[in-house]
Structures are given as C-alpha cells and as structure tokens.
Amino acid sequence: MDRDIVKADENKDVSENITDEKYVIWLHEPVTFEGKKYDKIDLTCLEQVRVADMIAVNRKLANEGNSDVVQENSLEYAINLAARASDLPIEFFEQLKPGPGMRVKRCVMSFLYRQG
User: Fold this and answer.
1) DSSP characters for 84-113?
2) Which side of the chain, N or C, has fewer Cβ within a 10 Å radius?
3) Is the dihedral of CA 22, 25, 88, 58 positive or negative?
C-alpha cells in the first residue's frame, strides 16, 4: 500500500504545522513495536492529510469488505488514516490495547470533525 501523504504544497513552511498536544496521545504503558518502545503516538501529522488520502482509505476498506455506511466513524478507518498519515505501519495500530486504540480513534475523529 502506498502510504505517502498527498502534499498540496511541497514548499510549505514547517512552522505552519500544528504542534498542538491534542494530537499527541500519551501512553500510560509504553508500547513496544519492532524492538522500539513508544511512550506516545504523535498524530500531528494528521494536519497533512488531504481528501485524496481519505478516499484512498475508503477504497482500501471497501476492497477489504468493510461495508460501514459511514466508514470515517469506525475504529478501522481511524487507525488506517492514522497509519497513512504517520510513519507507523497499520500493524502498529492493530496491536494496541483497546484503551489506546480508542484514544487514536477519538483523536482522528476530533481532527476530522473539528470546526474551521
């Protein structure tokens, strides 16, 4: 799967990126994945997501048999979008315990449905 984020402007100033803590999920218990320990999941990368990325996730899930009417409200959609936006593979998100997994979902949904 191609996980590159569609970039609207390759020369965009890095200082414009959101560094807001609301997109950083601190883990109560560190998660070990592929030999590396993670004490947080940084999803500030969601700011780089474009509609083309969302469509790609919708198509991927539909091809895998996901028939949710509103896919973007599902946990599966949230972790796939988080994986597409971040440098972490989908397997990282799939192995999370329910608590951190649901925090990822809430973070992604909060990003998608924010005002403005």
Assistant:
1) HHSSS-HHHHHTS-HHHHHHHHHHHHHHHT
2) C
3) negative
